[in-house]
Every structure is written in C-alpha cells, then in structure tokens.
C-alpha cells in the first residue's frame, strides 16, 4: 500500500486520527423500503405497544390526537402524575389527585413501567456510536444494523457527525468526498417515522458539528423531517441531574427527543439544540485504552462537584490503530471487531462494558446515563449491552429481545475514490483483521 493512498484518505492528520475508522468505506446505494418505517424484526414484545392491555379507570390518558401514530394503540400512563400545565393531558388527570388510591401503571416508558416516573437524569441508556454508518462486514462501519432496527432493539441515543459541504447538512466522515451517508434530513425522517409509531419512547440525538456551522442550519432538516413537534426545550441553559423531567412528563407532552450539539450551539437562537457539554460530560472519546478510564474529558476542567451532579456519557468503543505501510505516523483507528465479544460483554474487567459501568458507578456514585458502543448487537451474547443498562437501572432484561436484522442504512456511495480503490482498501483492512 503506498503512503499516498493513506494521505489521500487522511487529508487532515488530526481529523484522520479521530475519524479514520469511518473513512474507508464503500457504501452501497440502497433504496429505503417503505416497510422500514414501521417496526419490524425480532424486537421485544414489550416494545410492541399494540399488544399492551387496556387499563380501565386509567388516568393521565394521552390525547391520541397529539400523535400521528396509526399503528400503536394509545393507552394512558396510569398512576403517574402528569404535569398539570401540559395541554395534551386530559382533564381527568387532575381529578385523580383526589382519588383515595392511585391505580398501578402498566404502560411501559422506554420499555419499562419503572421508568415512567423516573427523571431522564436517573436512567442509563445505550447509545449507538455513529448510528448512520451501517455497512455489515465493512472495516469502516460502527454498526451493523440500521437506525430503525437500532431503535426497535432498545438503542435510545443516536450519535453521529454532521458536515455541511454545500448548504445542506450531511452525514459525512472526515470529508464528504470520501464518505457520505446521505442528508441529515433523510436520516431524521426515518427517526420521525419511528417516533410516530412508538409514542411511549424518549430518545436523544447527539451530533458533532464538524464544520462549526451556525446552529440555525439545523432547523430546516429537523423541520422538514417532521421532528420539530417532538423536540424538548430545556428551561435552563444548563441542567443538573434533578432538573431533567420524568419520562412520563416528556411522553405526555410529546416532547420526547433531546437534541445535543457538541460545538457551536446557541440556545438563544435555537432553543431545542442543546449545548451538549453544559448538560452532560463525557469520558475520553475514541479510546484505544482497553481499561476505558471513567475520568471526565469534555468539557475540560469541569469541577468535580459539578460533574457529580450532571448527566454523563461513557465512551466505551474500542479502536485499534493499524497501518497499511508500516509507518506508525500513518496509523489510523478502526473499531476492534475481534474484541467485541469482550468489549460489549455484560461482566468482566473494565474492558467489558459491564465491568466498566460498575467501575464508573463506584467512582461517581451512580451509573453513566449514556453508554456509547460500536456494534451494539454483538457481545458475550446478543443484547449484552442492554443487559448492562438494565443492571444499571435495576430492571430485568429480556435476553430474547435482541436483535433485529435489518441494515436499513440508506447510505450512498462515496464519490471521490474509485470503487476499485475502495475495494482494495477494504480487502487489505479485512485481511489484516481476520
Ligand atoms: C380503553 O378503555 C377506555 C375506557 O374504558 C375506552 O374508552 C377505550 O376505547 C379503550 N381502548 C381500547 C384500545 O380498548
Ligand atoms: C385532543 O386535542 C385536540 C387538539 O388539541 C382537541 O381538539 C380535542 O378536543 C382533544 N380531545 C380530548 C378528548 O381531549
Ligand atoms: C413518582 O415519584 C415521586 C418522587 O420520586 C414520588 O413521590 C411519587 O410517589 C411517585 N409516583 C408514583 C406513581 O410512583
Ligand atoms: C438513580 O438515582 C439513585 C439515587 O440517587 C441512584 O442510586 C441510582 O444509581 C440512579 N440510577 C441511575 C441509572 O442513574
Ligand atoms: C481484561 O481481561 C482481558 C483478558 O481476559 C485482557 O486482555 C485485558 O487486558 C483486561 N483488561 C484490563 C483493563 O485489565
Ligand atoms: C476504575 O477506573 C479508574 C479510573 O479510570 C481506574 O483508575 C481504576 O484502575 C479502575 N478500576 C479497576 C478495578 O480497573
Ligand atoms: C450475535 O448476532 C450476530 C448476528 O447478527 C451473530 O453473528 C453473532 O455471532 C451473535 N452472537 C454474539 C455473541 O454476539
Ligand atoms: C432494585 O429493585 C428491587 C425490586 O425489583 C428493589 O427491591 C431494590 O431495592 C432495588 N435496588 C435498588 C438499588 O434500587
């Protein structure tokens, strides 16, 4: 392999080092079948709200016209106080406060009845690292299954990079000339379809603003995708843990999507686009250290007492550095596929997600809110990452509920490099891995 190919792929060495794991892809042109907008595959039955039994005498009933869902039967979250100011809560909610005994809620929120009355700041959820980059058996991918399958399986955080080469925000890595998975709007449309069909689910979208464009550029794709009605607007410019609403509050108001931007947010201009590091801190990003330190990396120099009282994300995706030409200076990072069974495992030393969450929990007195992983469907068993979250949340996990099979990526071909070059690179990468 000539060094010139590596230089071509990594025009900016620093960017290359962080993002190179995504930049060696030959992305297929895949039309998105309409059917993918509705839940499919072997997802948990407790996510299928159509099967949940009705509860007589329910309170806090959701006004069904709030939702555009055509598939889910809407049933009230019972026994959970709805915020009195919310227009979507029917009058019967308020009258329940005079009832002698509250009915027991049977409606799960994010898959669990126990979560309805919990603050978003008091729940651990699994985040798909680079959610849109979904090419099975390709050295460049970070996930095998597409966003709809991710959500059906229990992923509740969607993380990825955005770039704006020509006035349109796109899902690109390193450079849109090298890897382009389509527009942000097209991806968000899929998410919006899923939200409409799953009215009891709360998710977060965490974006990188690689080009540091003005936050107002994000309004159009979110609006055109139909996501604006779902977006949660915080009441303060920074939140400590207890300021987050409960899932029931978010579901009843239908403000079920928290959107964060790593750099360049301005909440006076775009109130729903949260300045990520004012609301959550993170452990080191893109680690190659198998011990995955639980230390705070971003924002830098945040006082420990502040960190203790804010949401945090554990970056638990392991990369290995490989070189094609023997020159360590040209090394780049790719996900460590061969170690996924260990890295995503539910228990073990701190290389495993389970072991690391236990260590971070001991260190910070509570589990991470967000568990960021590559290839979430692999582990010591399929769905072990969700077992880790369930353990952190003190709820049980149905091990038969993971995972779906659809790689509904909708990604487009890279357009700068020739197919032959990309195939060659992939072969080299795969050969060096397996
Ligand atoms: C649920 O119960 C309410 C009140 O009894 C009733 O009006 C409604 O039609 C029921 N919904 C379903 C889906 O059975
Ligand atoms: C539901 O909300 C719509 C729109 O706000 C309203 O027109 C309708 O009367 C409400 N229905 C109930 C049962 O509250
Ligand atoms: C919800 O949580 C609050 C505070 O944690 C508690 O006072 C209340 O009883 C809970 N309600 C239900 C229905 O669990
Ligand atoms: C929820 O809060 C309780 C009380 O602070 C804490 O013990 C528990 O670890 C928290 N769970 C999560 C998932 O944050
Ligand atoms: C965890 O154990 C594996 C082997 O079982 C080892 O390769 C790895 O280095 C260990 N990780 C740590 C952080 O000790
Ligand atoms: C837990 O994490 C801390 C901080 O990253 C580290 O210093 C410590 O060695 C870890 N504990 C274990 C048992 O690995
Ligand atoms: C998980 O599922 C995939 C298929 O999606 C399979 O190839 C893999 O071997 C399974 N097992 C584990 C332990 O991840
Ligand atoms: C975990 O849940 C069980 C009930 O399922 C409860 O008895 C126990 O106190 C909970 N533990 C914590 C730490 O919340």
UniProtKB/TrEMBL annotation:
Transmembrane segments: none
InterPro entries hit by this protein: PI-PLC_domain, PLC-like_Pdiesterase_TIM-brl
Any GO BP: lipid metabolic process
GO molecular function, one term: phosphoric diester hydrolase activity
Claim: Signal is one of the keywords in the record: yes
PANTHER family xref list: PLC-LIKE PHOSPHODIESTERASE, PTHR13593
Protein name: PLC-like phosphodiesterase
Signal peptide location: 1-20
Pfam families the record matches: PI-PLC_X
Keywords: Signal
Origin species: Polyplosphaeria fusca
């Amino acid at each position: 392999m000539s060094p010139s190919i590596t230089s071509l792929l990594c025009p900016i060495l620093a960017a290359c080092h962080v993002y190179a794991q995504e930049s060696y892809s030959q992305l297929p042109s895949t039309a998105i079948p309409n059917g993918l907008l509705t839940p499919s595959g072997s997802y948990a039955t407790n996510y299928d709200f159509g099967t949940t039994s009705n509860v007589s005498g329910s309170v806090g009933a959701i006004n069904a016209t709030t939702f555009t869902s055509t598939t889910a039967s809407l049933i009230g979250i019972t026994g959970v106080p709805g915020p009195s100011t919310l227009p979507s809560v029917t009058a019967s909610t308020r009258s329940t406060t005079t009832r002698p005994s509250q009915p027991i809620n049977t409606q799960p929120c994010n898959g669990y009845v126990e979560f309805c009355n919990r603050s978003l700041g008091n729940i651990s959820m699994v985040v798909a690292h680079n959610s849109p980059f979904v090419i099975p058996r390709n050295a460049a991918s970070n996930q095998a299954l597409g966003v709809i399958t991710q959500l059906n399986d229990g992923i509740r955080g969607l993380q990825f990079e955005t770039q704006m080469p020509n006035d349109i925000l796109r899902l690109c890595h390193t450079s849109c000339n090298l890897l382009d998975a389509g527009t942000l709007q097209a991806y968000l449309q899929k998410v919006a379809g899923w939200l409409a069909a799953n009215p009891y689910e709360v998710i977060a979208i965490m974006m990188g603003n690689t080009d540091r464009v003005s936050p107002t550029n994000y309004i159009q794709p979110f609006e055109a995708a139909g996501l604006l009605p779902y977006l949660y607007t915080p009441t303060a410019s920074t939140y400590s843990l207890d300021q987050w609403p409960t899932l029931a509050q978010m579901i009843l108001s239908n403000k079920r999507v928290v959107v964060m931007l790593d750099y360049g947010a301005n909440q006076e201009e775009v109130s729903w686009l949260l300045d990520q590091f004012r609301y959550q801190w993170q452990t080191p990003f893109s680690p190659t250290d198998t011990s995955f330190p639980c230390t705070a990396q971003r924002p830098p120099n945040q006082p420990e007492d502040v960190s203790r009282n804010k949401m945090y994300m554990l970056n638990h995706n392991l990369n290995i550095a490989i070189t094609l030409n023997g020159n360590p200076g040209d090394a780049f990072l790719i996900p460590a596929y061969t170690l996924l069974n260990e890295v995503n495992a539910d228990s073990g030393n701190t290389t495993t997600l389970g072991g690391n969450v236990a260590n971070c929990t001991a260190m910070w007195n509570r589990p991470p809110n967000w568990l960021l992983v590559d290839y979430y469907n692999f582990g010591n068993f399929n769905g072990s990452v969700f077992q880790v979250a369930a353990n952190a949340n003190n709820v049980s996990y149905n091990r038969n509920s993971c995972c779906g099979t659809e790689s509904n990526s909708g990604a487009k071909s890279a357009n700068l490099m020739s197919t032959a070059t990309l195939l060659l690179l992939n072969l080299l990468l795969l050969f060096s891995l397996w």
